[in-house]
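Justification of computing resources. Each target in the renewal requires a structure prediction run like the one illustrated here; the chain below, 304 residues long, is used simply to show the kind of job we budget for.
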Amino acid sequence: MHLLRRLASLALLAAAAFAPAAAPAAPLKIAYSEWPGWVAWEVAIQKGWIKQAGVEAEFLWFEYGPSMEAFTAGKVDAVMVTNGDALVTGANGAKNVIIMLTDYSNGNDQIIAKAGIKSVKELKGKKIGLEVGVVEHLLLLNALKKNGLSEADVTIVNTPTGQTPQVLASGLTNLFGASVDDTHVYFIGGGGTYEFDRVTRTTALGGVEADWESRKYYVSSKLTGLWPNGDDNTYVQTYRAGIAAYPSEFDEISAWLILDVQHINRRERELTVTPVMRLFYRNVLTEIGASFTGDFMLNFMIHL
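Resulting structure tokens:
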């Protein structure tokens, strides 16, 4: 895939470069991120070449997505982006002009997998780590299409480009641009106050949760312990099973039908069964449900 990495700025910035300054101007604020064609500017910064050229510029390091957001919001004067993303920022209202070609890429964007995954077709049902909305996302979608697959056949895990080496090396992923294991384990800890049987208590909290999911099915199990000050301990076991109502893409609302079964050791009615509707859009999750005994459930979460 042939990709052009370019430096894009406001049209005003390009015009000001040729206009005589009546008074000392504030340094230009230029956003850049982790890409070889852009990191090369670090050499010029450290050697002082920019100041030697008579230019006052402040280079600000961002993750790629946030760098475009900073430019769109007017927090920086220029940003290093692909030529395609320069069009996107313009569509969002941040008028810009491409003033410099900083890199020409032929083969630098790749899908990298660990041993055992030998073809794009083997990505079906896998989780894929990449930064959503950038050229690597486009590369993956094109590769899937050429191999008879679509984004609905995989799960995209939005991961900032600068974190990809650490995530791949950690063993949490089998693939970058492809595949994280479908099983997850979470550890829970904290403290505070909670209300149980209409009495508010100070308590410590701890637990463990494990889940498995695919594009179509989801199961989980969670054990939570509550240790109130001066009171008996409470243990909550929660089991869930769910199915996707229909295939969906990342930028579409996905709907899941989930059955939630909860057991609390200190209640006379030990089992609570709750049908739940889960709606997921990008990084926002909402769950609404009502148990067979009339208890209402509402969960809202934003993944940062």
